[in-house]
From TrEMBL, chain A:
CDD domains: Heme_Cu_Oxidase_III_1. GO terms for biological process: aerobic electron transport chain. It comes from Amaricoccus solimangrovi. It is found in: Cell membrane. Heterooctamer of two A chains, two B chains, two C chains and two D chains. Keywords: Cell membrane, Membrane, Transmembrane, Transmembrane helix. This is Cytochrome bo(3) ubiquinol oxidase subunit 3. GO terms for molecular function: cytochrome-c oxidase activity. Cytochrome bo(3) ubiquinol terminal oxidase is the component of the aerobic respiratory chain of E.coli that predominates when cells are grown at high aeration. Has proton pump activity across the membrane in addition to electron transfer, pumping 2 protons/electron.
From TrEMBL, chain B:
The chain crosses the membrane at residues 33-51, 63-83, 89-110. It is a multi-pass membrane protein. Keywords: Cell membrane, Membrane, Transmembrane, Transmembrane helix. It is found in: Cell membrane. Pfam families: COX4_pro (PF03626). It comes from the Bacteria. This is Cytochrome C oxidase subunit IV. GO terms for cellular component: plasma membrane.
Length: 237, 127
């Protein structure tokens, strides 16, 4: 947002009247919101629908089968220290992802303080935690595939278990992977000082700003958000 | 980045009129807020794991899972994604469409209930 004269937003009415005023007539609806942030939010909304469709499909498959659903508490148990601990790997993955969300939130904050090194360091920590998450997911997939889980069958119950498991966690893991890649790209830009010197982007030829870190953060928090729902509905239900 | 102008004279959409340094606006909040939310996310995750660990079943299990899930999701969207500090026009544009998902869940719940009844009725082999 530059020093362009814009609508005096403070004079607008609060509540619903304000929303109507923002959306009515030929004007920009998202005031004080840059387009990169608005577009990221709209992308995340569409991505929410994609994940919702997967979870709804899972709900439909699970509640319409007459064959018992495999018990996730046992399926995802790990044998550690001489005993089976239920869901322990998934719990650790959850904590890893939440930790990464925290470091990302701090990175955004330090970005707006224009603390280049701290921002980059926190983003790299976020990327490392994200990579750890994907690694643990790969371990989990390997374990289940060795135990005979396939998209069309599994040793414990309803056949749809494998298909929904691989689809939902696979799609989420892909999101985490892309998030890690983009975290590394943005962290490099931060570290190089692109957002301080106004260096132009390679593909866009535009100058970035520390708001790019916040937009990156939106995506990363969304990945964590989706995991909250997967953890609740797929692993705990 | 260039912004659309609502009222007033059009400024040429060139990079020249943009300051080399990024604009100073953005989300400024004390770190404490993030640490509190971070801590709560850990506590709530531990709680939802405990639901499984102590072996709660049926409605207590489902309602607790949903409760912890919704609080966690709310905290992430509100604070980490800064939604409470955004303008209402953006927040409503993003959050209201979620009702379509809830309606869809309702439709498919009814549909799968019907499917399972039919399967129990006509496919004895599935029993």
């Amino acid at each position: 947002m530059t020093d362009v004269p814009s609508v005096p937003v403070r004079s607008r009415p609060p509540g619903w009247r304000g929303i109507v005023a923002d959306w009515s007539s030929d004007q920009r609806a998202f005031k004080q919101v840059s387009w990169k942030k608005a577009m990221m939010w709209i992308f995340l909304l569409s991505d929410t629908f994609v994940f919702s469709c997967f979870l709804v499909a899972y709900m439909t498959a699970r509640s319409s089968t007459t064959i018992p659903w495999p018990n996730p508490s046992e399926v995802f148990a790990l044998h550690l220290f001489g005993q089976d601990i239920p869901l322990i790997l998934i719990a650790i993955m959850t904590f890893v992802l939440i930790s990464s969300s925290g470091t990302m939130a701090l990175a955004v904050n330090y970005g707006y303080r224009r603390d280049r090194r701290m921002t980059a360091r926190l983003m790299l920590a976020t990327a490392a935690l994200g990579a750890t998450f994907v690694g643990m997911q790969a371990f989990e997939w390997t374990k289940l595939i060795r135990e005979g889980v396939r998209p069309w069958s599994n040793p414990w119950g309803a056949e749809q278990f494998g298909a929904t498991f691989f689809m939902i966690t696979g799609f989420h893991g892909t999101h985490v992977t892309f998030g890690v890649i983009f975290l590394l790209i943005i962290a490099r830009k931060v570290l190089r000082g692109d957002f301080d010197t106004g260096r132009r982007g390679y593909f866009t030829s535009r100058r970035g700003g520390y708001e790019n870190v916040e937009v990156m953060g939106l995506y990363w928090h969304f990945v964590d958000l989706v995991w909250v729902f997967i953890f609740a509905f797929f692993y705990l239900w | 980045m260039p912004e659309t102008i609502v009222h007033g004279p059009a400024v040429p959409d060139t990079h020249a009129n943009l300051a080399a340094v990024a604009h100073e606006e953005g989300q400024h909040h004390p770190l404490k807020v993030y640490f509190i939310v971070w801590g709560w996310l850990f506590v709530l995750s531990a709680c939802s794991y405990l639901v499984d660990y102590v072996g709660l079943r049926g409605y207590p299990r489902w309602s607790l899972i949903l409760l912890f899930m919704l609080i966690k999701a709310g905290l992430i969207v509100a604070v980490f994604m800064h939604m409470v500090w955004e303008r209402r026009a953006l927040a409503y544009a993003i959050l209201l469409p979620m009702f379509a998902v809830i309606v869809f869940v309702g439709i498919m719940a009814v549909e799968s209930d019907y499917t399972v009844l039919i399967r129990r009725e006509y496919f004895a082999a599935d029993k």
